[in-house]
Specification:
The protein has 359 residues and is α/β, with parallel strands linked by helices. The protein is built from six helices and ten strands. Among the domains are: 141 residues, Alpha-Beta Horseshoe (Leucine-rich repeat, LRR (right-handed beta-alpha superhelix)); 86 residues, Leucine-rich repeat, LRR (right-handed beta-alpha superhelix) (Alpha-Beta Horseshoe), CATH 3.80.10.
């Protein structure tokens, strides 16, 4: 029997393993390089930039909204659209309240300490809020025709005040702390129940307008004579019987209203006030007037008559009327005086007064 030779290939297994490991290693290297290529490509960079950009945009948008909100509420605009936004922005700094349904200030007011002006009128509010001292930026306190019976001492902390109007309320007194508001320029206390003013108001050296008409004063408050910048003083419709001999302390006084009082004479010191241009008095009981006041062309001396004097006989009354008519004709020629009288009589009507005048 013949045997045939068969060749059987024999391989080293370690060689096969080495070949396999080399191929696996190369495959992993290619994957790693591909991954690095993708990471370093512009597509991934752009995607990252877009993400970061979107985050930044959101952050800036939120910041912008916050800034715009504060800007509109607190500060006036300095942009090119200033003229169009003046009214709306100013209104955000002004608090307005009116109507008899209001018996107290709204609670939300305590958080609006950035306000610059209060305008409250025609309500039944009896007192100012306890948070008043927090409104340190307030420049105008306009609260006429309410039911306020007392001003709190905290009003003295509002040192930025320029104008105060508390007319036609129920005030019996004014707190001396108001004298701390040394920048005050206008003070109106018409139509209350005041009979005196605290001496501390003498420190109001910037005050140019003081209206204390329709109260219960029997004499001019001492503090008023020490307000060196005073230009207008309204003492009409009080209970004055005489004027102090040092009225000429008011060296800048321009307008003086004294009508509807019980004055019998005017002191000679009034002629020493070189700035005096307008003087209005009641003529019913007045029997002694400095000559200079009547004949000085620079002074508009106006006498208002409520009723003719009962003790005058008819002849004297006719002469007086004729003299008044002549004086009226002369004054009508002066257009400046005519305009003044029209404006003044209009203001009297606004106060609800009716007066028969002859001058």
């Amino acid at each position: 029997m013949r045997l045939e030779r068969v060749d059987v290939p024999v391989y080293d297994l370690s060689l096969l393993r080495g070949i396999w490991e080399v191929r696996v290693k190369k495959h992993r290297q290619r994957e790693k390089k591909e991954q690095e290529r993708i990471e370093n490509s512009s597509l991934a960079s752009l995607a990252g930039q877009q993400y970061r950009s979107s985050v930044c945009c959101c952050a800036f948008y939120l910041l912008f909204c916050c800034c715009v909100c504060v800007y509109d509420v607190v500060y006036p605009s300095d942009t090119e659209q200033q003229d169009q936004r003046d009214d709306s922005e100013q209104n955000k700094l002004v608090f307005r309240l009116s109507g008899e349904r209001w018996t107290d200030f709204p609670r939300e007011l305590q958080w609006m300490t950035y306000l610059r002006e209060w305008h409250v009128s025609g309500t039944r509010i009896r007192q100012l809020p306890a948070c008043l001292a927090s409104f340190t930026q307030l420049t105008v306190l306009d609260i006429p025709k309410n039911a306020i019976a007392e001003l709190p001492p905290e009003i003295g902390k509002l040192t930025a005040l320029r104008g105060v109007n508390i007319s036609y309320n129920r005030l019996l007194r004014v707190p001396p702390e108001l004298g701390n508001c040394e920048d005050l320029q206008r003070l109106e206390l018409t139509g209350n129940h005041l009979s005196e003013l605290p001496f501390e108001l003498s420190s109001l050296k910037q005050l140019v307008h003081l209206d204390i008409a329709e109260n219960r004063f029997v004499s001019i408050p001492i503090c008023a004579l020490r307000m060196s910048s005073l230009q207008l003083l309204d003492l009409s419709n009080n209970r004055l019987t005489d004027l102090p001999q040092d009225m000429d302390r008011l060296e800048q006084l321009v307008t003086l209203f004294l009508h509807k009082n019980n004055l019998l004479y005017l002191p000679q010191c009034l002629t020493n006030i070189s700035t005096l241009k307008v003087l209005v008095v009641s003529g019913d009981e007045l029997n002694c007037i400095p000559t200079k006041l009547c004949h000085d062309p620079d002074i508009k001396f106006i006498r208002l008559y409520d009723n003719p004097r009962k003790r005058q006989d008819k002849k004297e009354e006719d002469k007086s009327k004729r003299r008044w008519r002549e004086q009226k004709e002369e004054e009508v020629k002066d257009s400046g005086e005519k305009e003044f009288m029209e404006a003044y009589i209009s203001s009297l009507k606004d106060r609800g007064e009716t007066e028969q005048t002859a001058y």
